[in-house]
Amino acid sequence: MSVFPHVRHRRLRMNEQVRRLVRENRLTVDDLIYPVFATCGQGVRRAFDSMPGVYNLSVDLLLEEVKKVQELGIPGVIVFGVPATKDEVGSGAYDPDGVVQQAVRAIKQAFPNLLVITDVCLCEYTSHGHCGLIKGQRVDNDTTLALLAQTALSHVQAGADMVAPSDMMDGRVAAIRARLDAEGYSDIPIMAYSAKYASAYYGPFREVAGSAPQFGDRKTYQMDPANGDEALRETAQDIAEGADIVMVKPALAYMDIIRRIKEQTGYPVAAYNVSGEYAMVKAAAQKGWLDERRIVLETLTGLKRAGADIIITYHALEVARWLKGV
């Protein structure tokens, strides 16, 4: 093998044209999914200091936001619900006239070609803030499954193109797949939150979605951040149960997990660039401590390099504009 001075790696970095020719990974608008938060009422735009530019939006204003998504060429949105009331069993999650169901119907009517994914979980709808039904002081896995399946079905009946269970109950993909298939929706894909960690990066989301647990924490059903092999087992289980896309959440501190899952499964992998990751960048940019555009594009390109096929990010609108030069 030839060595320096005959080999000079810098030759392929000398100008932008050559760098473009040899670039290994490219971030495009096609990689992006934009999260939106639907809430009740009319003319509601509720802002949050921890997540500048992210709002709770009533359906009328949500359509204005989704119009931007379509105009920028972003393939789709993932819809979260912020209900007016909550109860012990999260009934708003599977109410046919719930806030997500209303939002999905409105989005699909206005933008029929836009991909609409729905988050399937109970935490935004339960008075205790946990992702499943409570027995005593613990989340009961098995009794929760039927409600998750009913939630997914209600979303699909409203027009959702894909459902994304985020609860981390064991067996929920199988329960949802069986229910959808039984109701004639065998073509609806499931994007499973397969490796979802009990992370400190979710703080701002829990403010926006009003989903913080009222007692205890979620460590009994979300994953220990110290574990990697467990993520592979969780993902393999979801695939065996019928998941079509698997997800790693959060993204930035878990690029190794993205890479391992992609290499070992070959399945489409989504990375969720979560609220805490977004908030840190926004806060530092507001202080003038970093170049927001450069660091966001570098981070998301890193997720692509790690193996992500899909990136769910609150930066999606900005990234699409940057990539398009508008």
UniProtKB/TrEMBL annotation:
Database matches in Pfam families: ALAD
Superkingdom in the source lineage: Bacteria
Binding positions for 5-aminolevulinate 1 per the UniProt entry: 206, 218
UniProt-annotated binding residues for 5-aminolevulinate 2: 275, 314
Binding, Mg(2+): 234
Gene Ontology cellular component list: cytosol
Its job: Catalyzes an early step in the biosynthesis of tetrapyrroles. Binds two molecules of 5-aminolevulinate per subunit, each at a distinct site, and catalyzes their condensation to form porphobilinogen.
Name this polypeptide is given: Delta-aminolevulinic acid dehydratase
Species per Swiss-Prot/TrEMBL record: Desulforamulus hydrothermalis Lam5 = DSM 18033
